[in-house]
């Protein structure tokens, strides 16, 4: 049976019905990675032996008549900042090169309990700091839709793996858009859940008050299925709220916009968007209206003016603190020096790449006396104002439509030529992290050149189920994205 292109739900159902085995599904995934990934570089560690052994255990459970889990036999990959027991976890940095954790991240545990099979670790920007997946020590990941372009970042390897058809689903982390922007660039569906919806335990931190685990898939139904598996309270993460979650698959199955109040973000320069992305927003609005939703124009002046500056103040200050532990003595790459000070300097200079060093230096400056009072503290106050602005918005609307990125997938090398443009490209994605909101990157088709177009949907905090219901309705009308046609040619 042809397994390429099957959804996670279809694979799980097929394994349970004994139409094919989990081992067959996993071997098909591994074979595709071996055939193509030397050109795309989405996977940095292939766990072939462990994956086949896990798949056989799933098949044995099915043969015994046991319940193998909602994701039984589904192959998946995780971003390389998820701790994986017995499997190297480097954050794609020399600082952690060769490190093998002795425990699994909670998200990885939940996937395992549901019967999913981990087949590899996905490439990423070093320590999740970037928007292109070009800063990895393993080399850049290429976009399966167009190899001259980046897959986005920092979860570019996870998004590329789904777009390339290696796996039906993948996990990434999203601090300022690191799941949604790669999903948009690679032409798949991606979600940043509400802050506190999924445990962050076992994820190497970038900025703890912003980080959130997010699923990537080829369709909204699979996003919902992963949410059912992952969204549970965790005593190891005090920010992961222990409340009774709704059925996300049930919400997505309803796929309705009837009676919904949909807000359309205005008050920014629409002309600054690439034309196909502006057209995608118009199409999404038309679908919502045709499906029975009412449309209202809204402005978020504080959010749009201050979100990028606020985000970088908060994120870099947090990152400076988090990454201080990598000193070459307790953790991370070690370099000898004539004294303790020189050892610290050499270890961190050699261990961290340029972008990470730059962000640590800026973050350290932000947290020093004088700058802390004048920059970091005001940024935290602005963050609260942004949250309040969204709270007021969602008193009169159920969902917000806005762009994800001002541009289609970037050409490779743009980050080096114009880094400021890369940072400003986060203007629409960082807002969900600052306010702790759920957000979906939804594919709206492709340009004539084959580049993905997309929109971003946001909902009130812990309104993830309602968001998936609306996203599924738009996807039903617009169509789910297809996997990329890969080539082995240079």
Structural notes for this entry:
This protein has 490 residues and is an alpha/beta fold. It has one domain: Alpha-Beta Complex (Amidase signature (AS) enzymes), CATH 3.90.1300.10. The protein contains 17 helices and eleven strands. The protein has helices at residues 8-16, 22-40, 48-63, 106-113, 156-163, 180-186, 220-230, 248-254, 275-290, 301-322, 340-351, 354-367, 371-393, 414-417, 419-424, 430-435, 464-478, and strands spanning 43-46, 75-79, 117-122, 169-174, 189-192, 212-217, 261-266, 294-299, 399-402, 439-446, 452-458. Strands 1-3-2-4-6-5-10-11-9-7-8 form an eleven-stranded mixed beta sheet, sandwiched between helices. Helix 5 runs parallel beside helix 6 (180-186). The protein starts with 7 loop residues before the first helix and ends in a 12-residue tail after the last helix. The mean pLDDT is 96.
> How far apart are the first and last residues' alpha carbons, in Å?
30 Å
Order of helices and strands: HHEHEHEHEHEEHHEHEHHHHEHHHEEH
Overall pLDDT: 96
| Helix content bin | 40-55%
Q: What is the β-strand count?
A: 11
Q: Which segments are poorly predicted (pLDDT under 50) over 5 or more consecutive residues?
A: none
> Number of helical segments?
17
Query: Approximately what portion of the residues adopt beta-strand conformation?
Result: 5-15%
CATH homologous superfamily (4th level) name: Amidase signature (AS) domain
Shape: globular
Query: How big is the Rg?
Result: 21 Å
Major sheet, described briefly? Answer: 11 strands, mixed
